[in-house]
Structure formats: C-alpha cells, structure tokens
UniProtKB/TrEMBL annotation:
It holds the Pfam family PPR_2. GO terms for biological process: RNA modification. This is Pentatricopeptide repeat-containing protein. InterPro entries: PPR_At4g14850-like_plant (IPR046960), PPR_rpt (IPR002885), TPR-like_helical_dom_sf (IPR011990). The lineage of its organism: Eukaryota, Viridiplantae, Streptophyta, Embryophyta, Tracheophyta. The keyword Oxidoreductase does not apply. PPR repeats lie at residues 72-106. Keywords: Repeat. The keyword Repeat applies.
C-alpha cells in the first residue's frame, strides 16, 4: 500500500463498507493520515464518515466530520444515513438539525433518512417540521422524498396527512404504491389496500415481490379469497413462482382463508424453502386445527436443521396443547 492514489484509497474504503470490514477501514484511514496532507480531500473524508457511521462507530464518524473543514451535505448525509441504518434514530435527528444549524440544506438522500428516524420514534411533530423544510427546499416533489414523508405520516397514525401527501406525489413509483398498500394493511384497512392494488394495476403498474406479499396480507380473509387466487396466478405468470417470500405469503394467505390443502401444495412445490416457509405452514396447520400435522412438520424441520423462530415454537406449543402432546411440548 506504499503508492496508493487517492482514488485507490477511496475504492478500498468502499470495499471496507461493502464487506463490513472495520479492520480494513482503519488500515486505510491510517494510510491516509500517514501519506496525505491534513485534512484529506473532501471525497475521502466523506468515505471515512460513511464507513465509520455505517459500521456503527458514530463517534469516530463525528470526529472525522468535525476535522473536515469543507464538510457539505454529502458529509452530513453520510453520517445521518449510517445512524439511521444502525437504529440510532435520536442521534440521526440531532445531527440532521445540527447540519441545518451550520446552514447546510438537506438533499434528496438526507430527507428520507430524517423522515425514517421521525417515523421510527413516532414523532409526528418533528416529521411535520422536516416536511415543511422539504417544501421550503423544493425537495418534496422528489418521489423518494415524498414517499418517505407519506410513510412517516402513516407510521405516526396521521391518516389525513398521509392521504394528502400520497395525492400530491406527482409521479408515483413502485415504492410509493408498495408503501401505500403495506401501510393500509398494517393500519387495519385491507379494503383500501385492495383498492389501491387494483388502481395500481389499472395504470399499468408491474408488481414486485413486496407488492405481492402486501396484497396477500390484505386478502387474508375469506371475503377476498378469489382475489388472492387471481393474484396467485398473476404472480406465477410473472415469474414469481420461485420467489421464496411470495410463496411464503401464499402459504400464509391460504392458511388464513381455511384453504390448508392449497398451503400444502405451495409448500411442496417450492424449490427453495427457508425458516419462514416452515413456520408459515406450521402456523397454517394450527389455524386450521391440524395440530398433529403442525407437530409432525415441526419435527421434520428440526431434522432438516431449519432455524426456528419464537413464533414457530409458540405455534407448535399451541398444537401440542390442542392434542395434549405433553412429551413433545416439553422437548420443544
């Protein structure tokens, strides 16, 4: 590493971030300090801030930020995004407003981070302040900023503000529709989620796995069984028959709609299964009072060394209780 250019050092820092290698990052940082004049070029300083922040060393990231005289919106966004990524939402908001106190305006990448932090902390007043700033900066019409604001309003239970924000987004992309459908389901409004999906299809929208899973959650009621069946066909016609998350959603959907045979067929035809696949079918059996099948499937999953979840264990225990399986319940 004796003759590395600044570009090469930058690439090494990117590699440290992508591989989550703090050791590599610190070695590169030491080389920068040793071979380059202080302070380093702004783009290298930004890489360092991003590396420390994303690898969950926020204090180191702040030290580099404070030692960077030419810090700009990219520098601050590198810090804030890493804090949000690692769940430090309060710190992210603190640094977001610290950036504003320095006179730096957020960009299209900073605002979504701030909205996510506000949503995660359930701070609607703070979210509204950030929304007002986005309007002032002329960023609210950006689809990602608008979608983040919409999601914040949904998560802070401000339905009217959320609907208004959704209506004002000029060009709704797939992520926007996914957010609308998912939040409607989580908010207990499956009919609105179904209506939104139908509207999305009418305007020529092409769903992805997130859309399909959200819609299946909305249809998890006998009233929407036929719609769910239609979605099943649409998903497979669009090549999602090998998508594990979609298949897991179908197992869960059919189980909740008392169509356990269909859940079994989807499970049996899956080329690749994960822990959620097994858990979904165990839960479907329990929901349909097939306690013995649920217990036997759990035992099969253990033989295949499938990673179990708390929900899978609780479902199996419910099955054991249903058939008085004391010995199996103790082993679980």
């Amino acid at each position: 590493m004796s003759r590395l250019t600044t570009d090469a050092l930058g690439l090494l820092l990117k590699n440290a971030i992508s591989t989550s290698s703090m050791r590599l990052g610190r070695v590169v940082h030491a080389r920068i300090v040793k071979t380059l004049d202080s302070p380093p070029p702004p783009f290298l300083a930004n890489y360092l801030i991003s590396m420390y922040s994303k690898l969950d060393h926020p204090e180191s990231a702040r030290i580099v930020l404070r030692l960077t005289p030419a810090r700009n919106v990219v520098s601050w966004t590198s810090l804030v995004s890493g804090l949000v990524q690692n769940g430090h939402f309060s710190s992210a908001l603190f640094d977001f407003f610290e950036m504003r106190r320095e006179g730096v305006f957020p960009n299209d990448f900073t605002f979504p981070c701030a909205f996510k932090a506000s949503a995660s902390l359930r701070l609607p007043v703070t979210g509204k302040q950030i929304h007002a700033l986005a309007v002032k900066c002329g960023r609210i019409l950006d689809v990602f900023v608008g979608c983040s604001a919409f999601d914040m309003y949904c998560k802070t239970r401000l339905r009217d503000d959320a609907q208004k924000m959704f209506d004002e987004i000029p060009e709704r992309n797939l992520e926007t529709w996914n957010a609308y459908i998912s939040n409607s389901v989580m908010d207990g409004r499956p009919k609105e989620a179904v209506e939104a999906f139908i509207e999305f299809r009418k305007i020529g929208g092409n769903p992805n796995s997130i859309t399909f899973c959200a819609f299946l959650n909305a249809c998890s009621d006998g009233l929407f069984l036929n719609l769910g069946k239609q979605l099943h066909g649409l998903a497979f016609r669009n090549g999602f028959d090998g998508d594990v998350s979609v298949c897991n959603g179908l197992i869960d959907f059919y189980g909740k709609c008392k169509q356990i045979l269909r859940s079994e067929i989807v499970f049996a035809e899956m080329g690749t299964k994960n822990g959620v696949s097994w858990c979904s079918l165990v839960a479907a059996y329990v929901q349909n009072h097939e306690d013995e099948k649920a217990s036997l499937l759990y035992l099969r999953s253990r033989k295949k060394i499938v990673e179990t979840s708390d929900f899978m264990i609780s479902s199996t225990l419910s099955a054991c209780a249903g058939m008085a399986g004391l010995e199996l319940g103790r082993s679980v």
